[in-house]
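LOG
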Amino acid sequence: MARRAGASLRELPIQNAIYEGSYARRPRRALEADFDFFGGPAFLAFLIPDSLPGTLRSFCNRSTRPPGTLSISAVSEIDGNGVVMVAFCKVVSFLLLCYRNTARIRFRALVPNWGLKRMLSGEQISNLRSRFPILRQKTYLYSCSQGALSDAAEAGLRAYTESWRTSSAPWNDWMEVYEAMRAEFACFVNAEPDEIAIVTSASAGINAIANAVQFDRRANVVMGEYEFPTMGQIWLAQQTRGARIEFLEGRGNSIPLEAYERAIDERTAIVPVTQVAFLNGFRSDAARITRLAHDKGALVFLDGFQDCGTRPIDVKAMDIDFYVTGTLKYLLGPPGVAFLYVKRSFVESRMPTITSWLAQRDAFAFNTRKLDPAREARRFEGGSPPMPNIYAARSALALLTSIGMENVRDQIAQLTRAFLQGTRALGIAAKTPDTSVGPLVVLRSTDPEALVGKLTARGVVVSSRLDGVRFSFHVYNNLDDVHAALAVLEANLDLLVRG
């Protein structure tokens, strides 16, 4: 699929090419084509997110690029069919003319949503569901606790055991996979790879930051009462170091923005915020809270565990200082892998008190007498990475991104709206706002344990927290799942709070 220098990229049969050859089985994120142009050998990687029109930015971890290659990202507007606009072509043409010798270049376009409709078709959902074995027997609405196991994650585990069985230097191979996982998640949240730490749990990531924050002039930590317990408990543990913790009380299963306005001031060090509350499905207005905090000079730590994997995420657009999530819920991976985003300015200014050999600038120097933390977010990591989990998580993330995160978001929103409409028709009281776009809906129950038992007996997998029963939707769910859950609820209204 060659083109002469100056040919418009609009001529490329982009939509068809995604399905050609080895791509015929399902859409892929990567599309490769060869071009003849006036340039030297190079490798250009272009990332084109809908949310960042008209900018040009660097995007790949230099350590992960092939030696002697060039890697950049040209970001431009895309129309509804995924066609690259003229501005993008001009950027490419300019870059190509920077070289003097005629050569062939390989162009890879990483396009999250090309080749997929905005709303997934029934056939696409059916094909996707076939990749999750549990969906053949169960109505799986449990992703808020653990995402369903896919054939992709299973294949990742097999790849790990194969590498262990056959490699003469497995740790060399595994560290390459480890760094690839870092770069891929960085792209997923629009961060740079050196701003991502791979940790074993959200708790490990939060602890690393909490122990690096100083509580001298600014000692207050302000957070809502709906944070996950580990967030509250880790910051409470900093009281011995001078921290003062203030919990904001909820009102009607939400934390009013006015509560943050009153509490955040020049004495506030950091504001932890849950993106979606595990207890009730309440979605925080993270953007406005971040602006409030930054206006007062405070840091913001966003916990995205109950949301990451359900919609596009852009940590730069949100302007947050820290972001933590893990793979075991909506990222469809196993426990044991989590990610911590750290804004570069904080990486460069703080020395962590929790460290490890792998967090050093040169981990393989093996110098017991020297503490020399890495200059990247890796300085906040623990010890040796859990490689079986990383193999599985990496494959799961590839499956998720191949669907298109806008498609994931839209499917979840459609199912959430349908479920909430059904519960309202049955007169069931929900903790989750009527306007929710998902992924989590929590219903009030007079006996949560008994209701979970009734649902489980009918093959509907859910979870409960306190007086709420949790129903979580993901892209692999469909309207049949909604109807199955509503049917069980209708038969057990005596176990639900009416309202």
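LOG (cont.) second protein
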Amino acid sequence: MRHMLYGRMAERETVERLVREARSGVSGALIVRGEPGIGKTALLNHAAETAGAGDTGNAANAVAAAGAGVGGRGIKVLRGVGVEPEADLPFAGLHLLLRPALGLLDRLPGPQQDALRGAFGLGPARGERLLVGLSVLSLLAEYAGTGGLLCVIDDAQWLDHASAEALLIAARRLDGEGVGLLFAARTPGLPAPGLPELVLGPLDDRAAAELVAGHPPDLAGRVLAEAAGNPLALLELPRSLGTARPGELPLTARLQEAFGRRLTPCPRPAVPCCCWPRRAPASWDRCSPPPARSVSPSRTPSRPRPPAWSRCVTTG
């Protein structure tokens, strides 16, 4: 089942181009950045589904082309994810990504085989960081074969350092292997100098309205005002606002989990249970992290003030 993606036409085209190029034998890498809940995972899912289905814009045409045996063919997809509890375990993230490809280790040059076997505990550790990164590139090229490969790495801000370093070494040396590397990371996270980046902003008004179209107009209007274009908030706030008392903005568990990691507790006294007035007292602004700098390589737009629901977490 394909995931529904609202809006993001330019962003879709960017990741679809990465898939098309991998299919044609041209490699590339892209870092997708943005705040929690802004839609990074949804965009990665779209890219993975596009790659697997051979769809680069029109699903019906892709299916017809695949049935005819011409063009539009799917490519292999490897999926990995950064896991926060494993962020201190060297090569944990790399192992999650490369497990399906480890059967091809014997095709690599001897030193590269030894480097990856050492990284994954299958042989003596060698500790040669550049060699591990080059070995990752060789293994991805072998796995891609002649059909192309898309590697999707979500929550890359939580990759262990060794895995992130090896993958970025490989990403900077991609050429004609037919490999696409697509990362998603929160802002800030996963410094990747020299690689192209796509910074996701809020949904436009039309896409945001589509997300809340099934709710009563009064509720939808308040959700649109509070969510400030954040897709996760647009999906989650209707579940809590329907039963909220006037002037309160309670958060669902998903919103608390997504935003609580980067926030500090509010000074007491504070409204308990992560409910606070829509217009938070000015003193609560001290709970907010400083506005993150944009990582777009071409410009540094001003960052809008975060909505009230994302600025404070109470400790109860």
